[in-house]
């Protein structure tokens, strides 16, 4: 198994590596419209990018839309790198960031195809299935200690 490095980036950083991963996963693979993917919230988010050597293989972002509440969004891992633990590393980094921001809970919208990934990380479903960007999702929440 390869080693992956997780880099933390502020919204005003060069986000091109994060955007490349998101374009591959969401726009090209899952047919999400570019207008929906680039929602104008990247500058107010903290980002993490996973690298194998110098190649970006995964990314995710964290926002704190409400005091004490974090929202994890845009979790993406390039197809050849899935099932290698990269999603777990990205989530670990953003959950630590949420704790550092004194957040008591994390919210996210999970694609139903990967709902069990989040359940294994302690997230619980809080909604019925809904459509977001043409993909079935559920709202999930995790309380932080």
From TrEMBL:
Keywords: Acyltransferase, Transferase
Gene3D superfamilies attached to this UniProt entry: 3.40.630.30
Entry superkingdom: Archaea
GO molecular function: acyltransferase activity
Domain N-acetyltransferase: 4-145
Coiled-coil stretches noted in the UniProt entry, renumbered to this chain: none
Pfam families in the cross-refs: Acetyltransf_10
Record's protein name: GNAT family N-acetyltransferase
Organism: Halovenus salina
């Amino acid at each position: 198994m390869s080693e992956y490095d997780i880099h933390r980036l502020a919204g005003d950083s060069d986000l091109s590596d994060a955007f490349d991963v998101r374009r591959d996963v969401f726009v090209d693979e899952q047919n999400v419209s570019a207008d929906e993917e680039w929602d104008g919230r990247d500058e107010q988010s903290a980002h993490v990018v996973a690298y194998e050597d110098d190649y970006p293989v995964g990314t995710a972002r964290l926002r704190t839309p409400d005091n004490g509440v974090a929202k994890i969004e845009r979790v993406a891992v390039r197809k050849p790198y899935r099932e290698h633990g990269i999603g777990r590393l990205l989530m670990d980094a953003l959950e630590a960031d949420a704790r550092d921001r004194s957040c008591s809970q994390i919210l996210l919208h999970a694609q139903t195809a990967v709902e069990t990934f989040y359940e294994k990380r302690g997230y619980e479903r809080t909604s019925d299935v809904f459509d977001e960007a043409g993909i079935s999702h559920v709202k999930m929440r995790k309380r932080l200690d």
